[in-house]
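This section describes the prediction task in plain terms. A model, or a person checking by hand, is given the sequence of a single protein chain and must write out its three-dimensional structure as a string of tokens. No templates, partner chains or ligands are provided. The sample shown here is typical of the held-out split.
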Amino acid sequence: MKKFVAIVISSLMISVPVIGSAKELKDEVRQILKDNPSIIIDVINENPAVFIEALQNASRKAQALDVAQRENAEQRKLDAAFSNPLKPVIRKDEAIRGTRNAPITIVEYSDFQCPYCVRGNQTVKALMKKYKGKIQFIYKHLPLSFHSEAKNTARYYEAIRMQSNKLAFRFHDIIFSDIKKLRGGEKALKLLAKKVGVNMKKLEQMLENKMDIINARIQQDIDEASKFDFQGTPGFLVNGIPVKGAYPLEYFDGIIEQLQKRKLISL
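The expected answer:
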């Protein structure tokens, strides 16, 4: 350490005028270290504890700065979303859970085989209970390619919805009560449909004669999710405000509170 200080001081006394700028001083020190990198190693070896502490402090500051920057970026996105909410298509024959035309509209883009969607479904149930009569909930499809039974389950849901919205949500609920049931494939889907009271003959007719319509509807949901930049599941829109992931109830509460503060809804 003494050697390093002596070299720096003697060099500065020789080469840097008294009236030299701070930049010149910094450049001179930088050049000395560049020409003599072993100086840095010597300093570290002589003061390892000081060096490690400084490095840890720098790392903590960098992490805190990164978190703050990401939070600020997310807040900017959220503010922009309130000013320009996304507009999903709500079809005339959409299965609605809750109160139709309620002040809060939650649209979910989901995958029947996704474990995170199970958590998302639990949060939706809690929201429906907390804001009873104030929410209309719409389920849309975003089956992921690596979930082998997800798309076919979506087909069954749509075929059942053509028979009864109520039965479609019963089917939805029984699957999300234990998604491992889907490992049984087509046979399991038929058993679950029968269990919730579906007319199996009508279901078979829908799956046989209306498959093009069913597939087109599922693809519409997939395309809409892609347009809104939902790449994983679950994804939600709360009055057009995007929520990407299985966030807890409190996060949705925050969005609803903001909607009220901004006078975008009245509960």
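For orientation: Residues 2-83 form one domain.
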